[in-house]
Design goal:
246 residues; 3-stranded antiparallel β-sheet; 9 strands
Length: 246
């Protein structure tokens, strides 16, 4: 990348020297940008494809609607007719992700970190991404924090992009299973203010994740899911750097 963009002053290639995870990687870039020079920042995965005019459509519509955090309609690639994300709902009690809110308390609307157009005001108001999330869940926590601060989040349907899903992880690998479980357990600590609610949510999610692990064991014929869950539980129970709740 450094060689490819050599001589292009408008492109800055940053290197952390290690795989710090999604949240820390994005924060590293934001901390090295002169944010005061920009109205907004576009956070974009590298496993995506953008049609011509995408950024203009996304930014113009977001500005017209007063959105502080905006996301596009995302289809799969190469099955470009299949919808992948149009905003999602996360249930903080059960840890379920759905396209519509469940008829239960604890539903949180969020946009995937695959593509986010974030106004500078958002970072100035709520700060950066929570680096305790290595992969998955940081977008839920970020959007929840923004909503609690009175900031508006929404989808721009006219802005369409394509995502090569699962390009950053191998489905059912131990790494993938562990990161999924860790993110759900950390969200129980982040999304609830009171300790009793955090504990109850963690217990419910542990049961849900246990059932998920059994189903994935039968589906894939290996123990990566239960091993990942056990490792995640060990980390979240022993870690001293857990979020105390917002």
């Amino acid at each position: 990348l450094t060689e490819a963009f050599h001589g292009h002053d408008q492109v800055l290639v940053l290197e952390t020297g290690r795989n710090a995870g999604f949240a820390a990687g994005i924060n590293y870039a934001l901390q090295h940008l002169p944010l005061s020079d920009f109205d907004a920042v576009l956070i974009l995965n590298n496993d995506t494809s953008l049609p011509d005019g995408f950024i203009e459509i996304l930014s113009n519509d977001a500005r017209a609607r007063g959105l502080h955090i905006a996301g596009p309609r995302i289809h799969r690639y190469p099955e470009t007719e299949k919808l992948w994300s149009q905003g999602s709902w996360y249930n903080a009690w059960l840890g379920l992700v759905t396209h519509r809110p469940l008829p239960l308390p604890g539903n949180i609307f969020y946009l995937t970190g695959c593509c986010l157009l974030v106004q500078r005001r958002v970072f100035e108001t709520i700060g950066l991404f929570d680096e305790r999330f290595f992969m998955y869940g940081e977008d839920v926590e970020f959007c929840c924090r923004a909503a609690r601060a009175g900031l508006k989040t929404g989808v721009v349907d006219a802005a369409l992009m394509f995502h090569k899903t699962n390009a950053s992880s191998i489905n059912n690998s131990f790494f993938y299973e562990r990161q999924v479980a860790v993110s759900h357990l950390l969200l129980s600590r982040c999304l609830f203010k009171h300790r009793s609610a955090q504990i109850l949510s963690t217990c419910i999610k542990t049961a849900m994740l246990g059932m998920r692990a059994m189903l994935r064991t039968l589906r894939f014929g290996n123990l990566n899911a239960p091993k990942g869950l056990f490792s995640a539980l060990s980390q979240t129970v022993s870690s001293k750097d857990l979020p105390p709740g917002l």
